Automatic annotation (TrEMBL):
This is ABC transporter substrate-binding protein. It comes from Aquincola tertiaricarbonis. Keywords: Signal. Coiled coil: none annotated. CDD domains: PBP1_galactofuranose_YtfQ-like. Belongs to the bacterial solute-binding protein 2 family. It holds the Pfam family Peripla_BP_4.
Length: 308
């Protein structure tokens, strides 16, 4: 949709540097740190003035930050919504102030999609499917049952909802796959470890597979598995998502079987879109990041090429 059509009446001056208000989720993972770095450096390279706010994984902090950006009359607001729901009111306030909003990384489930201009980020459902397809292939010829424990991301967040959905969609084709425990680890190493300890206590050697919605939780869980006297990636097959350097290190050490890529390097694309919006160009409603999958067998070869 073109900005002129969406937000008639708001003139963006060509001579002053653009001001972007960005509300980040927090600093919960290695992925998030790389995402923040990408946004900060891309803003600098693009000559865009960045007002950056860290919400510490709280929606109320993001809403406050967005309201502050509206009061400061920034040119564009971008944010990575911690959870999917509950954004309509504040997005309507931005629209009334004629400030375009760009979603990065995570989606909102607002019915009115005129409340944001575009959404740049990964297809989380497809990431879940990739994880599921890898497992189905790995377990070919294994009669089962295959007992899976799942470490979910932040409750109510788009990646937690979609990665669960995509994975379940694939494994549902074969009843030998059973998710025997599923709980949130909030995308952090500490919580991943804590919840895995509880899974191990309850299920012990029954656990065949761990599916973690991000690498950080898998890395925390690996510690718990080792402390329980088991061998990660051998006694328990481990699948996670992101493809951060920490995951590659774990794969090279033989402790993680596979990581599905989710790129945090959204900064340059975000700045380019903001400039297009400023220029009144029509931008796509959805921009999907292209991503791969890295099993442990290719980790050592791929590692030197990794940028995050
Ligand atoms: O929204 C992307 C997810 O958020 C990443 O997979 C996770 O590591 C981060 O915290």
């Amino acid at each position: 949709a073109s900005l002129a059509a969406l937000l008639p009446g708001r003139a963006l001056s060509a001579d002053k540097p653009l001001v972007l208000g960005f509300s980040q989720v927090g600093a919960e993972s290695e992925w998030r740190t790389a995402n923040t770095e990408s946004i900060k450096s891309a803003a600098k390279d693009a000559g865009i003035t960045l007002k950056f706010s860290d919400a510490q994984q709280k929606q109320e902090n993001q809403i406050k930050a967005i309201r502050a950006f509206i009061a400061q009359k920034v040119d564009v607001i971008a944010f990575s919504p911690v959870v999917e729901s509950g954004w309509e009111t504040v997005l309507r306030e931005a629209k009334a102030a004629k400030i375009p909003v760009v979603l990065t990384d995570r989606a909102v489930n607002a019915k009115d999609d005129s409340l944001y201009v575009t959404f740049i980020g990964s297809d989380f459902t497809e990431e879940g499917r990739k994880a599921g397809r890898w497992l189905v292939d790995k377990m070919k010829g294994n009669a089962g049952p295959i007992n899976i424990v799942e470490l979910q991301g932040t409750v109510g967040s788009a990646p937690a909802i979609d990665r669960k959905k995509g994975f379940e969609e694939i494994i549902a084709a074969d009843p030998k796959f059973k998710i025997i425990r599923s709980q949130t680890g909030d995308f952090t190493r500490a919580k991943g470890k804590e919840v895995m300890e509880a899974f191990l206590k309850a299920e012990g050697k029954k656990i065949n597979v761990l599916y973690a919605h991000n690498d950080d939780m898998a890395i925390g869980a690996i510690q718990a598995i080792e402390e329980a006297g088991m061998k990660p990636a051998q006694d328990i097959t481990i699948i996670s998502i992101d493809g951060v350097k920490g995951a590659f290190e774990a794969m090279i050490a033989g402790k993680l079987n596979v990581s599905v890529e989710c790129s945090p390097l959204l900064g340059p694309q975000l700045m380019a879109i903001i400039k297009d919006i400023k220029a009144g160009k029509s931008v796509p409603k959805r921009i999907v990041t292209e991503e791969g999958i890295f099993p442990m067998e290719v980790a050592a070869k791929e590692f030197p090429k990794r940028k995050y």
